[in-house]
Amino acid sequence: MANLICVMGESGSGKTTSLRNLDPKSTYIIDCDKKGLSWRNWGESYGGDKKNYSVTDDQQKVMALLKSINANAPHIKTVVIDTINGIMVADENRRKDEKNYDKWSDLAWAVYGIIDYALTMRPDITVVFMAHAQTERDDAGVLFTRIKTSGKKLDKICLESKFTTVLNSKCVNGEYVFETRNELSTAKTPIDSFKDQFVPNDIASVDAVLREYWGLPPLGGDAK
Predict the structure, then answer these.
(1) pLDDT at residue number 221
(2) What whole-number distance in Å separates Cα of residue 30 and Cα of residue 219?
(3) Which residues of the chain register pLDDT less than 70?
(4) Per the CB 3.0–4.6 Å rule, which of 14, 91, 154, 159 could disulfide with 149?
């Protein structure tokens, strides 16, 4: 079973920037938002003939890429889907003239299917799903933050239930961080994996902690 991480957050909260320290030689980024990466000279490490970067928001192409990486690219240890919402919105837009309920059911199972398949990938792979967040106020006036979804069917599925790690990307006192837990959001991490509520905005360091926690070989080396 692959190690899955979800990073949710508002636009501009540092989700994509958190990828900056990943090794491009062992990383594959699927850019579903079609916006490129968010640090200087990123094109020198990703894209082109490096075969580590694709731009698509088509769920079937995303699934095909995951299956190909799993079977044919043993050097790839980290796969990033940025963002799952890009797939949702694109599918909704392509089918905007359809009036029946089936399109929402199809969308829900397509997105669920991508996450469900990712769980079955090689155990040495970490799959990182980026997601936009939404914060809602309940009848008592309490704010709660969760993954933003398209359609009530996905709300019922509860995408967070497929992850053991959901990080909330945010800016606290001028510093970009990941929130590991909060009773007012769906942020969560495995018990005793992170002692602090806030950790640095760095997927590479998060992945290193989780690989050690799950007893997986570290990137660039063998298990001791």
Answers:
(1) 53
(2) 20
(3) 95-107, 150-155, 221-224
(4) 154
- Confidence (pLDDT) at 101: 55
Q: How far apart are the first and last CA of the chain?
A: 20
* Residue 14 and residue 131 in contact, taking contact as beta carbons nearer than 8 Å: no
Query: Rounded to an integer, what distance in angstroms lies between the CA atom of residue 76 and that of residue 28?
Result: 7
Q: How far is CA 81 from CA 1, 100, 183, 197, 199, in A?
A: 18, 28, 26, 25, 21
16-27 burial, b for 16+ CB within 10 Å, e for fewer?
bbbbbebebebb
User: For residues 121 and 123, what is the distance between their CA atoms, to the nearest angstrom?
Assistant: 6
- Span 128-178, pLDDT tens digits: 999 999 998 887 888 999 999 866 656 677 899 999 999 999 999 999 999
| The length of the chain, given as a count of residues | 224
The two counts, helices (H) then strands (E), for the chain are: 5, 9
Contact 205, 180 (CB under 8 A): no
Bond into 83 cis (ω within 30)? yes
The reported pLDDT for the residue numbered 206 is: 98
Q: Which amino acid, residue 106? A: D
Closest to 29 (Cα-Cα) out of 116, 147, 130? 130
Nearest to 45 by CA among 27, 57, 59: 27
